[in-house]
Write a structure and sequence with these properties.
The chain has 6 helices and 3 strands, in the order βαβαααααβ. It has helices at residues 16-28, 43-53, 60-63, 65-71, 76-85, 91-102, and strands spanning 9-13, 36-39, 106-110. It has a 3-stranded antiparallel β-sheet. The longest helix is centred in the N-terminal third of the chain and has 13 residues, at 16-28. The chain is globular and about 35 Å long. Residues 10-104 form the General stress protein 17M-like domain. Pfam families: YflT. InterPro entries: GSP17M-like_dom. This is General stress protein 17M.
């Protein structure tokens, strides 16, 4: 993992413990706390993992106000894909990661910032 890559970094892990380890690895690699996010299929699980790992949830700042409002009316899958896309991933990448979340896995993302 290198900060010289020009794209956000994502890692799918099996559980919250592995998510905490991945967040710590990203910090050790030089990513700032504000640029590290976790995402799980269930909102409450996302919140718990974010709190435990001291990472962020994807919110209005990342999505923009219009997508955040639209998410109130979207299915959970559509909402998750929109959140993933808001951090610079393509529709097909977001669809892949959302399917992994459907299987109970956790997504750890380090946002690339210039």
């Amino acid at each position: 993992m290198s900060m010289t890559d020009k794209k956000s970094y994502a890692k799918v892990v099996q559980n919250g413990v592995q998510a905490v380890e991945a967040v710590n690895e990203l910090r050790s690699a030089g990513y700032a706390k504000d640029d590290i996010f976790v995402l799980a299929h269930e909102q409450d699980r996302t919140e718990r993992i974010a709190d435990t790992s001291d990472a962020n949830e994807i919110g209005i700042k990342e999505e923009g106000i219009f997508d955040a409002i639209a998410n109130l009316f979207r299915s959970r899958g559509d909402e998750l894909r929109a959140k993933i896309e808001s951090l610079g991933f393509t529709k097909s990448e977001a669809a892949f990661y959302e399917k992994e979340l459907d299987l109970g896995k956790v997504l750890v993302i380090a946002r690339y910032t210039a």
